[in-house]
Amino acid sequence: MAKVPRNFRLLEELEKGEKGLGDGTCSYGLADDDMLMHNWHATILGVPNSTHENRIYSLKIYCGKDYPSAPPEVQFVSRINLPSVHAENGRVDRQSLHCLANWKPNYTLETVLTELRREMGTVGRKLPQPLENTTYN
User: Fold this and answer.
1) pTM over 0.85
2) Alpha-carbon span 77 to 89, nearest angstrom
3) Span 6-52, pLDDT tens digits
4) Is the Cβ–Cβ distance between 117 and 53 less than 8 Å?
């Protein structure tokens, strides 16, 4: 399989994220006018019938120069209580989230966001959550 250049891959992801081609529960786009497409912002809608219901979570994503061969760095801006997220800074632990620990180049930003949302609806379904609208410093 031919290796798609990083920028082409990220342009495809940007187009998909901006058009909302997924199920609408996760969205993402560039955080600024970063020509190298390193800094992204994302949103995950809380899972119904859970402690996340009616919440909107904001995240920051950093795609390094080796993306998509290497996984992105993901950090929640909104405070959240999940097993894969460090409580003190909101960073997602690469070893605790399956798709990051077992990263494959065909995985996307949507893959990561969808897996985080799945964690909200399973092991994080009943975990007590920080007050709404609180953020990490």
Assistant:
1) yes
2) 9
3) 999 999 999 888 776 677 899 999 998 888 999 999 999 999 999 99
4) no
